[in-house]
Amino acid sequence: MKENVLISLTSIQWQDDEKSETELVTRALLTSSKGCDVISYEDTSATGFEGSVTTIRVEGSKTASIIRKGTANSVLSLEKGRKHFCQYGTPYGSLQIGVYTHAIDNTIAKDGRLYLKYTLDLNSSYLSDNEIIMTVRPYN
C-alpha cells in the first residue's frame, strides 16, 4: 500500500553536554508491505541536507536503515543492540561511521509513530547520541 502522508520529524543530537534539535514537517510517501514501512521525503535546509532525498526503511521494531541520496549520500544501518559500520558521503570524501542502536520503536501501522535512538562514532571516537521522533498522518 502506498499513500501520501504528512510527517513531523524531530531530530535530537547530543554532543557532550550540548543538545541540538531540528524539526521538519513535510509531505512524504509511505509504503507498507508485510511488516516493512518505507518513508521517503525530500530534505530541506532545515535538516541541513537540502537537495537530498531521505528514505527510512523499518522492518517491525527489529531493523531500520536511513538512506540519503543527492547532495549527501549515506546509508545508516540500525539494529537494536548491535553496532554497524556505515559509509557517510560528504562533499569532501567518504567517512566510515559506527552506528550503535539503542532503540527502534515502530508503531506506524498502529498510531503513526516511529522512534529511533542511536550513537554515532567516527574512527571509534564518540561523535553524538541521536534520537529521531516521527509522527505520520494521512495527507490529502
Task: Characterize the structure shown.
This protein has 1 helix and 10 strands. The protein has 140 residues and is mostly beta strands. It has a 10-stranded antiparallel beta barrel with strand order 1-2-3-4-5-6-7-8-9-10. The mean pLDDT is 91.
What characteristic shape results from the CA principal axes? Answer: globular
Low-confidence runs of at least 5 consecutive residues: none
Q: Please give the number of β-strands.
A: 10
Mean pLDDT: 91
Number of helix segments? Answer: 1
For the biggest sheet, the summary is:
10 strands, antiparallel, barrel
Q: What is the N-to-C succession of helices and strands?
A: EEEEEEEEHEE
Coarse structural class: mainly beta
The helix content is under 10%
Provide the β-strand percentage band: over 45%
Supply database-style keywords:
ten-stranded antiparallel β-barrel; mainly beta; 140 residues; 1 helix
Concise summary:
This protein is mostly beta strands and 140 residues long. It has one helix and ten strands. Strands 1-2-3-4-5-6-7-8-9-10 form a ten-stranded antiparallel beta barrel.
Write the layout of secondary structure elements.
Layout (H helix, E strand, L loop, with lengths): L1 E14 L2 E16 L2 E7 L9 E8 L3 E8 L2 E7 L3 E8 L2 E15 H4 L1 E10 L2 E14 L2
Antiparallel strand pairs: 1-2, 1-10, 2-3, 3-4, 4-5, 5-6, 6-7, 7-8, 8-9, 9-10
